[in-house]
From TrEMBL:
Residues 32-42 have a biased composition (Basic and acidic residues). Keywords: Antiport, Calcium, Calcium transport, Calmodulin-binding, Cell membrane, Glycoprotein, Ion transport, Membrane, Metal-binding, Repeat, Signal, Sodium, Sodium transport, Transmembrane, Transmembrane helix, Transport. One of its GO terms (cellular component) is postsynapse. It comes from Conger conger. It is a multi-pass membrane protein. This is Sodium/calcium exchanger membrane region domain-containing protein.
Length: 353
């Protein structure tokens, strides 16, 4: 008499195939199935007929096949419906266990989704606590392990370098006040004041070391006012699945600086001088040369971005390591060339327009 294997199996929730050695006891002369059956989570199909590779006895086989012929259609219909089909003298308890790897993955996704939704704060207290607290950098490996990551030495250095600005902007009203309008107005005002302060500080610094205003503007002022846009583009490139937000932020900020910044300032100055009965004139200086050089380099950058859409690279940002590093080096060299040529033209080492 064929022995019965343990009628108990455990299947992981993630759908990993399991193997069950269910052997039916039909007596010394009966047929028994020894072919393992594969199971997935939530599915169980145990056939009563022996297939290829099945051991058994032919005693009474013809009588059994005649008895089964009338039930073939019904069993096939039940199997197609996805219901368990159990043979005679076969019992099994299937326990679907929770997959810890799958659970950790789901918990990690839910955590990131909740953090993405919490884009604001509820009180000034939370803002100041966050500003003076040293937080660790994001690391996916530590999130999967479920352990809280401790701040590194680099995190402490960056915190103490930026704690003044963190505390300063912690005075911005929380996003819950006035549906976010208080935060928007105050933050824009503080950014404007900080930009004006950086501009005046850079101008005094250039005057102290003997730099012309045009050189100070393209080096220190432009660099200081563009750093926030750079970090904003970095965050957008990491969080979004495409490059629209990061590149659009760069082009949009340039458009705002040129059309809105210069346009509004010069319009106010023109209206003021016209009201007092005198004309308003601005010396172009090295503006023509700088704008022409900037336009040429901008066309080069746009051409590179269009070339990066080729299938072997895949897009404007990211891609294989070698094209990514080459693009970074090219854009950085264009910025250095722009500064060098603008400075040489400002000090009359090369002839401008």
């Amino acid at each position: 008499m064929a022995a019965m294997s343990p009628h108990f199996t455990q299947l992981p929730h993630s759908g990993v195939s399991g193997v069950s050695d269910v052997i039916g006891a039909g007596g010394a002369g009966g047929r028994w199935d020894g072919k393992p059956a594969n199971h997935r989570a939530g599915e169980l199909a145990l056939g009563r007929q022996a297939g290829p590779g099945t051991s058994g006895s032919d005693h009474g086989a013809e009588e059994e096949e005649e008895a089964l012929s009338g039930k073939d259609e019904e069993e096939r219909r039940i199997a197609e419906m996805g219901r368990p089909m159990l043979g005679e003298h076969v019992k099994m308890e299937v326990v679907i266990e929770e997959s810890y790897e799958f659970k950790n993955t789901v918990d990690k996704l839910i955590k990131k989704t909740n953090l993405a939704l919490l884009v604001g704060t509820n009180s000034w207290r939370d803002q100041f606590i966050e500003a003076i607290t040293v937080s660790a950098g994001e690391d996916d490996d530590d999130d999967e392990c479920g352990e809280e990551k401790l701040p590194s030495c680099f995190d402490y250095v960056m915190h103490f370098l930026t704690v003044f600005w963190k505390v300063l902007f912690a005075f911005v009203p929380p996003t819950d006040y006035w549906n976010g309008w208080a935060c928007f107005v105050v933050s824009i005002s503080m950014i404007g004041l900080l930009t004006a302060f950086i501009g005046d500080l850079a101008s005094h610094f250039g005057c102290t070391i003997g730099l012309k205003d045009s050189v100070t503007a393209v080096v220190f002022v432009a660099l200081g006012t563009s750093v926030p846009d750079t970090f904003a583009s970095k965050v957008a490139a990491i969080q979004d699945h495409n490059a629209d937000a990061s590149i659009g932020n760069v082009t949009g900020s340039n458009a705002v600086n040129v059309f809105l910044g210069i346009g509004v300032a010069w319009s106010i100055a023109a209206i003021y001088h016209q009201y007092h009965g005198r004309p308003f004139r601005v010396d172009p200086g090295t503006l023509a040369f700088s704008v022409t050089l900037f336009t040429i380099f901008a066309f080069v950058c746009v051409g590179v971005l269009m070339y990066r859409r080729r299938p072997e690279i895949g897009g404007e940002l990211g891609g294989p390591r070698t094209p990514k590093l080459l693009t970074t080096a090219l854009f950085f060299s264009l910025w250095l060339m722009y500064i060098v040529f603008s400075s040489l033209e400002a000090y009359c080492h090369i002839k401008g327009f």
